[in-house]
Amino acid sequence: MKELRHITAKHPWKNYELGLPVIEKAGVAHKIDFRESQALPVLDELMQEEKYRGWFDFVFVDADKENYMNYHKRVMELVRVGGVIGYDNTLWSGTVVAEPEYPVSEYVMEMKDRFLELNRHLAADPRIEICQLSISDGLTLCRRIS
């Protein structure tokens, strides 16, 4: 089995400190490489190393929403054919499928257009098969087929 890697962007919830005791209890801490950083520069670093191209089995994206299209460009290079990419929040409070009946912030409405663009792009990308799940704020799973 390949070594597991996890890359996390700076996050106010302190994912590392929260998850580390669970990871240690499971006995897999030696398989995880935590990197606290902005995600795009780390992905760019990984793309510079040939060994990481097509290396990852699974990538989960739940980062700065403005850059989901940039993440897709990069992780498609890093995930293997047959691997899966998960994009969180792709229904964006339901606003990408319906106009909200309640007032939402300007940020939510601005991001709605970005998620609509991402969803259209993913649906048209011939390198992947997708499945969009309506759980919580939406989750899109993409299986790389080429």
Distance between the termini: 22 Å
User: Using only CA atoms, what is the Rg?
Assistant: 16 Å
**CATH H level of one domain: which superfamily?**
Vaccinia Virus protein VP39
How is the biggest beta sheet arranged? Answer: 4 strands, mixed
Tell me how many strands there are: 6
The gross shape turns out to be globular
β content, as a range?
15-25%
The name of the CATH topology of one domain is: Rossmann fold
Structural class: alpha/beta
Helix-strand pattern: EHEHEHEHEE
By CATH, the architecture of one domain is named: 3-Layer(aba) Sandwich
Structure explained in plain terms:
The protein has 146 residues and is an alpha/beta fold. It has a domain at 54-144: 3-Layer(aba) Sandwich (Rossmann fold). The protein is 35% helix and 23% strand. It contains 4 helices and 6 strands. The protein has helices at 15-25, 39-48, 68-78, 106-124; strands spanning 6-8, 34-36, 56-61, 79-88, 128-133, 139-144. It has a 4-stranded mixed β-sheet, covered by helices on one side. Helix 1 links the parallel strand 1 and strand 2. The relative contact order is 0.14. The model has no long low-confidence stretch (mean pLDDT 86). One of its GO terms (biological process) is methylation. InterPro entries: Cation-dep_OMT, SAM-dependent_MTases_sf, SAM_O-MeTrfase. It comes from Musa troglodytarum (fe'i banana). Belongs to the class I-like SAM-binding methyltransferase superfamily. Cation-dependent O-methyltransferase family. GO terms for molecular function: O-methyltransferase activity; S-adenosylmethionine-dependent methyltransferase activity.
